[in-house]
Amino acid sequence: MNNPIPDSLSNTPTAVSQLIQIDRAISELRRGRPLPILCADKNRLIASVETVDPAVIAQFQEHDEGLAYILITGQRAKYLGFDAKEHETIYRLVPSNGMPIEQIRAITDPVWGIGTKQSPRHYLSNWKLADCDDIDSLSIRLAKHAELLPALLVAHSVNHNQVDEWSIAVDDIAGGIVQQSRSLRVVSEVQVPLEDVETARIIAFRPNDGGVEHLAIVVGEPDLSQPVLVRLHSECFTGDLLGSLRCDCGPQLRGAIAHMAQSGGGILLYLAQEGRGIGLINKLRAYQLQDDGLDTVDANLALGFEEDERSYLPAAQMLQLLHVARVRVMTNNPRKVSALESLGISVTERVAHVIPANPYNKGYLFTKGTRGGHLFAAINNAEQSSD
Q1: Which among 385, 225, 247, 235 has a CA at the least distance from the CA of 315?
Q2: The domain containing residue 219 runs over which residues?
Q3: Do 245 and 359 reside in the same domain of the chain?
Q4: Of 20, 104, 149, 282, which sits most exposed with the smallest number of CB within 10 A?
């Protein structure tokens, strides 16, 4: 089989250095420190809009003769009312008269003004939309990797003596992001009897950057010489752990394990991709927007994310490390099938995974079926679930 899964992570000094650099860059952004980026032409300074305060804004306006700007995604720009391309596009928002922090908050914080009659569009007369460059796009990728809102404050023409001692080169950002997603290794395996199946094993996979682990729950003793029943399940703190009724994740998780136990075995891949890859905090923000009237898809777009930010490369690598060559995928989401096939995994069958709806998640399931392409019966009244 021609497997396009990338080779294992190189242990060269460059690769290791890039992982260290990208890990620190994410940490700097999350704790609110401006991050200097060394570029071939003009060095830049970026900061997450979630963490900026008037002192940080003043620091940015010292550069570029006050011509600092904000980066937002096309989805967020479209939601604000700009004539923008909605997907896979980044824009600069350039102020014409200063950068008051209340305007930055209103424009970039999707839950700003919820429950009031205030609209962020009230502030847009001071801002103009402009195209971005590749480094802007890379900076937004970094913000997403940090599970922050995809919105950044940026300044150019930053001198070395004007920034902190530590900085990151733009090539290390690009290389570090690639290295982060390239390789997993098994770090632990243990027998764990479960409520629905006593013969179960949990195998932990850690990415070579030392990041959050993915888990495989091996139910029974699946026959690896035959197509293995597999489910890709993205972690859901609210549904899996708390039993939230807003989604169908908890019943899907336990239902899949029970079905595998009754069917002679299978493998559930528990992927550390909360909220379709946007992180728990941003998922909770999306819930706020849904409470204010948006559906699941529009809430993610209003936050500035794609409808689904997940990557299935970790799942493909986990299957490879488990020596699983062919799979029957338990899902109602055709995109999962296509994603695995694109990564060289042979999918012999899609197995439907039907879970009854409840009064709290009918709208959510209806949106998944009508806008997300999920395949399940009774879509007109959303009485069935997808994944």
Answers
A1: 235
A2: 183-273+310-370
A3: yes
A4: 20
92-110-26 Cα angle (round to 5): 65
Q: How far apart are CA 171 and CA 25, in angstroms?
A: 13
Give the three-state DSSP class for 282.
helix
DSSP codes joined into one string, 82-116? -----SS-EEEEEESS---HHHHHHHH-TTTTTTS
Active site residue ranges? 308, 310
Q: Which secondary structure element, helix H or strand E, spans residue 257, and what is its range?
A: helix 249-262
Pair (66, 204) in one structural domain: no
**Which residues lie closer than 8 Å to 172 by C-beta, 6 or more apart?**
17, 18, 21, 22
**Could you read off the pLDDT tens digit of each residue along the chain, which spans 387 residues?**
344 554 444 567 777 788 888 888 999 999 988 999 988 777 889 999 998 888 888 888 777 666 789 999 999 999 999 999 988 899 999 998 888 899 999 999 999 888 787 888 888 988 999 999 999 999 999 999 999 999 999 998 766 555 556 889 888 888 887 776 667 899 999 999 999 899 999 999 998 777 789 999 999 999 999 999 999 999 999 999 999 999 989 999 999 999 999 999 999 999 999 999 999 999 999 999 999 999 999 999 999 999 999 999 999 999 999 999 999 999 988 889 999 999 999 999 999 887 888 888 777 777 766 665 676 644 444 444 445
| Statement to judge: residues 188 and 139 lie in one domain | no
Question: Do the beta carbons of residue 251 and residue 355 sit within 8 Å?
Answer: yes
3-state DSSP percent of the chain in helix, strand and coil, to 5: 40, 20, 40
Tokens encoding 271 = 């992927």
Q: CA nearest 132: which of 24, 61, 60, 46?
A: 46
pTM higher than 0.70: yes
My answer on whether 249 and 266 are in the same domain is: yes
d(CA 362, CA 369): 11
- Looking at the fold, whether 317 and 346 belong to one and the same domain comes out as yes
- Which single residue is written with the structure tokens 């993915």? 214
Burial per residue of 67-97, b for 16 or more beta-carbon CB atoms within 10 angstroms, e otherwise: ebbbbbbbbbbbbbebebeeeebbbbbebee
